[in-house]
Design goal:
It is globular and about 55 Å long. The relative contact order is 0.13. About 45% of the residues lie in helices and about 15% in strands. α7 links the parallel β6 and β7. The chain has one domain: NAD(P)-binding Rossmann-like Domain (Rossmann fold), CATH 3.40.50.720. With about 260 residues, it is α/β, with parallel strands linked by helices. The protein contains 9 helices and 7 strands; from the N terminus they run βαβαβαβααβαβαβαα. Strands 3-2-1-4-5-6-7 form a 7-stranded parallel β-sheet, with helices on both faces. The structure holds NADP nicotinamide-adenine-dinucleotide phosphate.
């Protein structure tokens, strides 16, 4: 597969990029730090068996793309299409996103505005650019990392969860509207996963590893899996199924 990943320099995105190249996919990385992109590209080359040692030759399979700068989205995706030289892009994946605790966000409106803009408004704008290109080439998969936090409002993640709830609703909508034209939408909803994003938080039961998520997501990308929503690790589908049934009075009493 030819795959573009925005957010592949860290956490679950990095694990997914690694898994993809180890299975023979060609990966083009988008991210906001040129240094991180180049370091990640060298790492991927080594894992793909394309280089014997890290070197200082700049890799061409990367381009800058900052979710705070939507004016750069088109150029970043142009660079990805140019890299694949006319071959179709099988999947565009967005793992990039930001997190902050509910206390941090409640005490800092500017930080709240930034999180909502990055996780929702600008991610949607990026997806709009991406889905137009996938449709123009006859179809393809748009795979975006939302979160279980968007499934049901919970006290510790009211604002972050709202950004992901909006994103999940948008992904559901474009699946309805464009599925018949060849767009496949995959909304990934990780549970708690141990990455830099969650460092410092107490892992709950069923906390997952990025490698598990990478395995689940790649399997869904390359198969003919009809799902449009993927919970990963899978146990979180069960957990969220239970949480969805809790009455409001119970949700008010528990600190969850
Ligand atoms: N970890 C969890 O428990 C969990 C649970 C549910 C959902 N999620 C979601 O899953 C996705 C991946 O999370 P993760 O845990 O792998 O996070 P992570 O390790 O913190 O990685 C986040 C990635 O997003 C990139 N990013 C952040 N802001 C960006 C911006 N303005 N422009 C472009 N890239 C930007 C980061 O790049 P830099 O290195 O440049 O910062 C990094 O590559 C996120 O959308 C997150 O909300 C995570």
């Amino acid at each position: 597969m030819n795959i573009v990943i925005l957010g592949g320099t860290k956490g679950m995105g990095r694990a997914l990029a690694r898994r993809c190249v180890e299975h023979g996919d060609r990966v083009f990385l988008l991210g906001r730090s040129e240094v991180d992109l180049q370091r990640s590209a060298v790492d991927l080359d080594l894992r793909a068996g394309l280089g014997s040692a890290p070197d200082s030759t700049p890799r061409s399979c990367v381009a800058r793309c900052d979710l705070e700068q939507p004016e750069g989205f088109a150029a970043a995706l142009d660079a990805a299409q140019a890299h694949f030289a006319g071959a179709a892009i099988d999947a565009i994946v967005v793992t990039a996103g930001v997190f902050a605790t509910q206390d941090e966000l409640e005490s800092d409106p500017a930080r709240t505005e930034r999180l909502l803009r990055v996780n929702f408004t600008n991610t949607v704008l990026f997806c709009e650019e991406a889905r137009k290109r996938l449709l123009a080439q006859g179809g393809g998969t748009l795979c975006v990392f939302s979160s279980v936090a968007g499934d049901r409002a919970r006290k510790p993640v009211v604002l972050y969860g709202a950004s992901k709830a909006g994103l999940s609703a948008y992904l559901d909508g474009i699946d309805h509207k464009f599925h018949g034209q060849g767009l496949r939408v995959l909304c990934v909803r990780p549970g708690f996963v141990k990455t830099g994003m969650t460092a410092g938080l107490k892992p709950p039961p069923f906390a997952g590893e990025p490698t598990q998520v990478a395995r689940d997501v790649r399997r869904a990308l390359c198969g003919r899996d009809p799902r449009t929503v993927l919970y990963t690790p899978w146990i979180w589908q069960l957990v969220m199924g239970v949480i969805a049934t809790l009455p409001r009075a119970v949700m008010r009493r528990i600190n969850f």
